[in-house]
Design goal:
Order of helices and strands: HHHEEHEEHEHHHEEHHHHH
Low-confidence stretches: 317-324
Strand content: 5-15%
Number of domains: 3
Mean pLDDT: 89
Number of helices: 13
Distance between the termini: 29 Å
Helix content: 40-55%
């Protein structure tokens, strides 16, 4: 395994009957990948404190804090459960005041929801206000946001209907969702997947994914190309021309001329940059890819398909040689 591969996210539960792994085991597995770790010389129990704090002792210093967000707190109230409350992270100064670096929205909402009650807090003792900024930046800038795939996975575990339907549409096409996968049929761009499901539905999504697996069996699923074919299917239906054989022909011609589905998308993108240099960025990407696919089919067969959303002329070879 290369050094780059050892640094990629991995699932410590692989090969187990369930997905529960002790923290100490995960720590060992991570250390094996990243190598020696410089041991700390301090005792965290002497630095980090946990407890319940009087709200009157809590201060937000807005020279070192983000603004209050009413919309955030309104949304928070809609899904509030006490056990979801995030403890604040703060700096406790020598005057006994807690300067919050993280957790402002949860803390202020809890104060409003439970008047007179104390607030859970995690803090370090320091009179240096730079400690607040270090906390704020580490927790809100340096931290990696949770990947959309893991949000999708958790919502499936919680029984949310839409993520479950999306996952089923993917499975029905012999594909899989995942995080940073490159296996044939894998889908990693979750935002595109959700948008496609919302726009075209699970049935159409399964049809397109199935055909992409059929005509480019060694590819992962490139969602830009997927969306282009979904748009072509929609246009065929709008113009009363959709037919399984015809739609297969559209895929066949794309497969004949392009070595993989990503190359198809990239060549279409390149032609739009050339043909529309001043406004190609403002043109919807899905409609651009669909236009390129339609033009490939029409130039390869000499038959009209449907009107292209955007005018484009793909440079095609006369014989069915693969463009590399």
């Amino acid at each position: 395994m290369s050094k780059k591969e050892t640094m990629q996210p991995f699932d410590p539960s692989k090969g187990r009957k369930n997905r529960e792994v002790k923290a100490t085991t995960v720590a060992k597995m991570v250390k094996q990948r990243i190598g020696p770790i410089e041991l700390g010389t301090d005792n965290p129990e002497d630095v980090i404190n946990l407890g319940w704090v009087d709200p009157d002792k809590i201060i937000f210093n807005y020279s070192r804090q983000r603004f209050a967000e009413p919309s955030h707190q309104k949304n928070l109230d809609k899904k509030w459960k006490t056990y979801l409350m995030t403890p604040g992270q703060a700096r406790l100064d020598s005057n006994g005041f807690y300067y919050v670096a993280d957790g402002q929205q949860h803390i202020t909402h809890m104060i409003n929801k439970y008047p007179g009650k104390k607030v859970p807090m995690c803090w370090v003792e320091s009179d240096d206000p730079n400690v607040e900024s270090e906390m704020l930046l580490a927790l809100n800038v340096d931290s990696l946001p949770m990947a959309k795939y893991f949000v999708h996975e958790q919502k499936i575990a919680m029984g949310y209907a839409v993520p479950i339907a999306i996952e089923q549409a993917v499975i029905d096409a012999d594909c899989e969702t995942g995080f940073k996968l490159r296996r044939p049929g894998s889908i990693t761009h979750m935002i595109d997947l959700y948008n496609a499901f919302d726009r075209w539905g699970g049935e159409s999504l399964t049809i397109i994914l199935t055909k992409m697996r059929t005509y480019w069996p060694k590819d992962k699923i490139y969602t830009a190309t997927m969306n282009g074919f979904l748009k072509v299917k929609e246009l065929l239906e709008v113009h009363g021309k959709f037919d399984d054989d015809l739609f297969d022909d559209v895929f066949i011609e794309s497969g004949n001329y392009f070595e993989d589905s990503n190359r198809l998308h990239l060549d279409i993108k390149r032609e739009f940059e050339y043909a529309h240099p001043t406004n190609y960025k403002g043109m919807n990407n899905t409609e651009k890819v669909a236009s390129g696919i339609i033009n490939v089919y029409e130039k390869a067969t000499g038959n009209n398909l449907v009107p292209m959303p955007f005018k484009i002329d793909m440079p095609m070879m006369e014989t069915h040689e693969t463009i590399s």
